[in-house]
Design brief:
single chain; alpha+beta; nine-stranded mixed β-sheet; 29% helix
Length: 209
């Protein structure tokens, strides 16, 4: 009988690993500990991140018991309706990339997708920015069945609305995932545009020496 499943990827040359799915029955603590403990063993030498729904109490307890620490708590928002009409920030091209990257370095200094990695993989991203110099920006990644907003920093709610409106207008009704800091301008703008709040997202970190 299958009691749980876990998927992950590891980049040993970057000393980085991340779970992409953790599935256990609520209350099956032994299965949760076995899966997550084995993942940590396989990722030795890497910083290991595990993202869960805040409501996943069984896996959360197992992570705490294994020595993981919470590094992020976000609101999990999803958009699956029609994009609002009119206005919105324009998508950034290569001509404006360097100016945006200065903003990205200042606002996202510690994330995996730092300015250098973003620039190296520019064609895979959609970037929206406001101001010169840039004061507000958003970057997202779209795939065949949806898109995810990886980061948004805006000076106020109207700026966040402009960024989100521009991005949604180009996504042709694809579902959009947005993990956003609670209480932020991005969250307020997203909710005003019709995003649905699905719960809490919690990211756990394990320094696996």
């Amino acid at each position: 009988e299958t009691r749980g499943a876990l998927s992950f990827f590891a980049l040993p040359e970057e000393a980085y690993a991340q779970t992409t799915g953790v599935f256990v029955r609520e209350g099956d603590s032994a299965a949760a500990r076995a899966l997550l403990g084995r993942c940590a063993e396989l990722c030795r030498g890497c910083e290991l991140l595990a993202g869960l729904a805040g409501e996943n109490g069984t896996a959360s307890a197992a992570l705490a018991d294994l020595g993981f620490e919470v590094c992020e708590r976000s609101s999990h928002l999803e958009f699956s309706g029609r994009a609002p009409g009119g206005g919105g920030a324009a998508r950034l091209g290569r001509a404006g990339l360097e100016e945006y990257l200065r903003f990205h370095r200042a606002q996202f200094p510690d994330i995996w997708w730092n300015a250098e990695r973003l620039a190296a993989d520019f064609d895979a991203w959609r970037i929206y920015a406001l101001g010169s110099p840039v004061h507000s920006g958003l970057f997202l990644r779209a795939c065949g069945d949806g898109a995810e907003i990886f980061g948004l920093v805006a000076r106020d709610v109207p700026a966040a609305r402009d960024l989100l409106s521009g991005a949604l207008a180009e996504l042709s009704g694809e579902p959009v995932t947005y993990m956003v800091p609670p209480g932020s301008a991005g969250e307020a703008a997203a909710l005003s545009l019709g995003f649905d709040a699905l719960g809490e997202y919690v990211c756990w970190r394990y320094e696996n020496a």
